[in-house]
Amino acid sequence: RLKGAYLNGAHLEGANLQEVDLRRAHLEGAYLNGANLKGANLEGVNLNGSHLKGADFSRSNLMSASFGPVDLSGASLKGANLNFVNLEGACLAGADLSGAQLEGTNLRGAILVHANLNNTRMMFTDLQRADLDGVDLSQGSVFWRVVLCESNLRGANLTGRDLCEVDFRGSNLEGADLRGANLSGANLEGVHLKGADIRYAIFIGAKTQGADLTDVLRLEPI
User: Fold this and answer.
1) How far is CA 146 from CA 40, 87, 162, 213, in A?
2) According to the model, what pLDDT value does residue 219 have?
């Protein structure tokens, strides 16, 4: 057990910490590149300034943990509990977040290019100014009251998703695939939809003032 342990700046590269109890441990600035943290309990842990590239957090409990702008590129967070976690400004490029819980998670300004977000559960998730260029969100992901203001979703795949009441204000959805998506009540004010595919999408009650609809593929006017 390492519950509440002080491990600030510790060198734990490649360490096997699978299913270890690290609740409320102090890991600021720790070196955990490539570490195995599968199924570990990291609830409330402070990981600010830590080195986490390629670390494996699959099925781990990270609820209310604080990461800040760390490098998690290539890391596995598959099936992890990331509810109410602070990942503001974090680099998650190429990370696997499939099946992760992201309720109330702070991902403002996070880089999620090429990240796997299939089957994630997002409720009240803050993705304001996040970079989701080309991300595939078509496979079972749940969205509810998600904030995507000023985010980059260029070329993203959102086919068939329920995006009711999602806030997209000022976002870039150029070339995005929104076929069959439900955007009822969504805020699309000032959104760039140039070249997007919105065929069969539902826009009942959506706000589209100032949206750029140049060259969109659609069957009927919004």
Assistant:
1) 27, 15, 11, 22
2) 65
> pLDDT tens-digit profile of 16-44?
999 999 999 999 999 999 999 999 999 99
pTM over 0.85: yes
Q: What is the CA radius of gyration of the chain?
A: 18
DSSP 191-203: -B-TT-B-TT-B-
Q: What angle do CA 138, 114, 80 make, to 5 degrees?
A: 75
Q: Tell me how many degrees the CA angle 104-118-170 measures, rounded to the nearest 5.
A: 60
Query: CA dist 217 to 97, 159, 160, 210, Å?
Result: 30, 13, 15, 18
Q: Would you tell me how many other CB atoms lie within 10 Å of the CB of residue 96?
A: 21
Q: What is the pLDDT of residue 215?
A: 87
In this structure, the strands spanning 121-123 and 142-144 are parallel
Q: How far apart are the first and last CA of the chain?
A: 57
